[in-house]
Design brief:
Helix content: under 10%
Number of helices: 1
Shape: globular
Largest sheet: 4 strands, mixed
Radius of gyration: 15 Å
Distance between the termini: 36 Å
Strand content: 25-35%
Number of strands: 12
Order of helices and strands: EEEHEEEEEEEEE
Structural class: mainly beta
């Protein structure tokens, strides 16, 4: 769980503080009030420091319905941002000093809205009203 870190300085090494959360779901880090407060940088740094976790940014009036510990469905009127670090190709995180900018190559991001689903076992997203189906 992210407990500290300003949005404006979130991609400076050490500015985002993380601790164990409530233990409701494994291998994710969740940030709230996400879209309106511009917290994407906080989630980027949380994931680059823990690339095996899925970063979840919950927008205002938005949530995720999780079933069978594998399927997440976006609910509410806002957005859910997912940040997947499993395919990161490179970063300078361990090479820069505290307070210095962090670089990340190939950080995968998904944007979900009402009815979209994400499978935690395959890391695949399905857009409910896709224009490509």
């Amino acid at each position: 769980m992210i407990y500290q870190g300003s949005s404006s300085e979130a991609l400076l090494k050490g500015e985002v503080k993380i601790t164990s959360g409530l233990g409701l779901i494994d291998d994710v880090v969740i940030d709230t009030h996400f879209v309106q407060r511009g917290r994407i940088g906080r989630l980027f740094q949380a994931v680059v420091g823990n690339p095996k976790v899925l970063g979840i940014g919950l927008g205002e009036d938005t949530g995720l319905l999780i079933t069978n510990n594998t399927k997440m469905e976006a609910i509410g009127s806002g957005l859910v941002i997912l940040v997947d670090g499993k395919e990161i190709k490179d970063t300078n995180l361990t090479q820069v000093e505290l307070g210095q900018p962090v670089s990340i190559n190939h950080l995968v991001t998904h944007v979900m809205s009402m009815g979209d689903t994400f499978d935690l076992s395959t890391f695949k997203m399905h857009i409910h009203s896709s224009q490509y189906i």
